[in-house]
Amino acid sequence: MTERSDSRPVALVTAASRGIGKAAAIDLAAAGYDMAVCARTLHEGDGRSDTDGVAIPGGLDTTVARIAESGVDALAMRVDVLDRASIDEFVGATADRFGRIDAVVNNAIYQGAGVMAPFDELTDEHLHDMFEGNVFAQLAVIRASLPHLLRQERPTIVNMISATAYQDPPAKIGDGGWGMGYAMTKAAFARVAPLLHVEYGDVGLRVFSVDPGFTVTERMEATGAVGQYAQHFAGARPEVIGRAIRWLVTDPDADELRGAVVIAQREVKRRDLLP
Q1: pLDDT per position as a tens digit, 168-185
Q2: Which pick of 90, 129, 150, 267 has the fewest CB atoms within 10 Å?
Q3: 10-270: which CATH number, 3.40.50.720, 1.20.58.100, 3.20.20.300, 3.40.50.150?
């Protein structure tokens, strides 16, 4: 553990064992933020796909090791989006450990049954779990974090949404398309940032919806899902999206996009945020 500085800002990132969450946590640590990270997979080698049990690379231990390279402090906890108590415990532990929360990156999503189900196989139970894991869990993170955020000079919330919220699929499920239930939940979550902006923008809260676009994550590679989307969309690595998140959290120039949908890959290219 590194020595804690009370003047150092603190960022909370969910689902940070791999993919976009891991990339964002590493980039924010490099920007000087102490990090609170959570996920279901604590240790490298323990991750498995929810649907077929395929091994998925990544773990919070490897993320924390990368964070430590920046000389900042890190808190890591196991959290499941279907376990509301674990969410509240994580946010509370972050505030207790660091004494502040300056930024929240709502990156976690539900990965279980029903995500890629066609309509005639989509059950009420699937929808319940997807709304719990893709909407209500994220609202719980915001609700628990908000009092701490509003005490800071530049409080920031980054909500990871998806083009599925507003874009029609180019094909059926399995050929580059996506499930109706998943799209419904992402559409609901996409309305959170603009409404929070209206309600709290006048007291300084910075809220963004980030559409990462097609991102080639460890999970997609391990499950063999890359090809079906690559035929329709150009992909980016998680590090590209992580850099967009860092820019939103740290750069005052991003204020012009408060309350809006940020197309992450486009902004990184347009603003030359990565080589």
Answers
A1: 999 999 999 999 999 999
A2: 150
A3: 3.40.50.720
